[in-house]
Fold each of these.
Amino acid sequence: MKKSIILPLIVLLGTSCSAQFPKVLQDAAKQVGAGTGAPLSNADVVAGLKEALEKGAEHSVSVASVTDGFWQNARLRIPFPPEAEKMKKTLNDLGMSSQVEKFELTMNRAAESATKEAVPVFVNAIKGMSVADGFAILRGGDHAATEFLKDKTTPELIAKFRPIVEKATQEVALTSYWSPLAGAYNKTTLFTGGQAINPDLDAYVTQKAIDGLFLLVADEELKIRQDPLARTSDLLQRVFGSK
């Protein structure tokens, strides 16, 4: 991990143990603030870390939640459920490729709608960051903060996303697409001996939406750690700018 990341976190972690390590904290703060005209305070460093996480999370949501945020992004695009790939091939062979594509588009639209609700969940988790959380980030790798957010927010994201996904699939009649597709495929299994399927589509779309969102959060964390141009405020530049 780069010195520019380690030093701020040392200062952050020291907020609860400065009586034990006063000189270490003072030296770290001076080094972090070197070249800026004034050393950073512990409060500055904590605020900088939280600002970095909030900016990364908010930008990720803004990318994922727009129209085509999932659909036109090859890394995020939600495919036909893997357990139903045989069904997809069979339906395409039967000339139903347009229905299959429309079904896939609908799943991605549902994910785009759901991710709009993620910002307050992320912000609440960031505000609740503890000293123990800081130690975990300090000892982690380039995506340690992303893993922190994933651990702290996934249950709440599922709870918030699933109803939105369900509503979105109902509004665009996703189940009306899926039922005929699944029904048509299941009829073929009577002759092919294949296994009939009935996956929980709302759970599938919900999880894929969360996976895609955290992929973007990880990208943003790496940028802030490594790219000076990604530090878009004076505080971020001061906290993450020392070498």
Amino acid sequence: MKRREFLQSGAVAAGSAFATKAQTPVPTPPKPKIITSVMLWTLKGTFEERVEAAAQAGMQSVELVGEHVTWTDADIVRTKKLVASYRMGMDTIIATPDWGKRPVSMVDPAQRDNFLADCKAAITFAKKMDVPQIILMSGNAIPGRTHEDQYASLLEGAKRAGDLASAANVTMIVEPLNSLVNHKGFFLNTCVEGLKLIKDVDNPHVKLLFDIYHEQVQIGNVTRTLKAAVDHVAVFHIADNPGRNDPGTGEINYANVYKAIRETGYNRYVTMEYLPLGDQVSSLKRAVDDFRTAILT
């Protein structure tokens, strides 16, 4: 399943998340200053199988999209126990996982009440799930409206979401997506403008999600931009281009990208969000080991 389809598909059935299954012993992940995570939508299998695959690869945490939206409180308790049994955490959910199908755009002032209602609901889930971060999506550009008007609406929405995040002590992270390949028409499509937005919001509870794949597709110049943005980045997402597959299989020089991240002293989250080639556990383990080696040497 492509991420565009997953993001816009709405609630994901939760029943498969709690299938009874004997757990295979997993390695205890190291505790470097950077937390390594994986976006579960990129993996195959039931929810439980995807969580186990992340653990087998040595991940410290997992990110969700909209898996949680139909969960009851009992489901949440079971999920937290499942993830904790693998010595991992859950670090991120999305405020508007079905943003492509509902009027929750940040660039349309007429949809702001809907957007903020979703932010409030996401905060409620985040607090119950012990998730510290919530992803915000700008939505698609609106034909006939100026970029400046839409940016002003995006900024106001991000400020209002930031106020909610401050009160709840969570972090809203704004994610630019490329509009050339994966998300045609998406408004906030570069981390260059994403960084401007975060600076304009000026709230420590609103940060940038820097997706290296999306930035490479849209405009490139990744290492220079990430160095300029790093103080405002809460999460880096990792995938290669083209194909959104394993780091090292495409044109991005991840050795240099990791070196740049290391040189900045960055100490938050780095998340694998790619479609593994071959065995997914072996792929993830190799990817995260390469990252840790580059960061620690």
Amino acid sequence: MATNNDFCFSCTTCGLQSCHKRDKDLPKQCLTTTKIKEKEIEKVLDLYRNDPLISKLAKTAAVLEGTYYGKLTRVEEIIQFAKRIGAKKVGIATCVGLIEESKIFARLLEHHGFQTYGVLCKVGGRDKTEIGIPEELKVLKGCHESLCNPIMQAKLLAKEKTDLNVVVGLCVGHDSLFMKYSKAR
């Protein structure tokens, strides 16, 4: 448990969000002024301005936010984003618990002209004990229980040369591993 001596100011402890609209003074501990050097900001802005892929993604995301924020569902936003970046093939990294929703999502994307390729979290079908998970920590003890395999999901989507990958409900930690290894074009 943190004590007052351990207090570390961050965006989640700030009550102002002055950086959002710049309508108030930034708090003296604000990350914008204490943790970021102007040189770092300029390097990132240079990526947003000049790296062809990053510029395209950042600008498209900003335009969508300005146009549709709070007006479209996330599925509708993904469709608009994918269209505007010229994506043809959308990868879906899905949790087994949301496979039915992912099938509906895939059909919606296909209805809008996209190819889809979905990969379930349990792909490979290897038991959790194969990576050192004791039997007593499995959900269903005493039987095969496939481990979630987000790295393989990312690798399979990369092999399929997806233009955009979407995560549908991957569990905590599995989503982080997927993001680390995902390589959409």
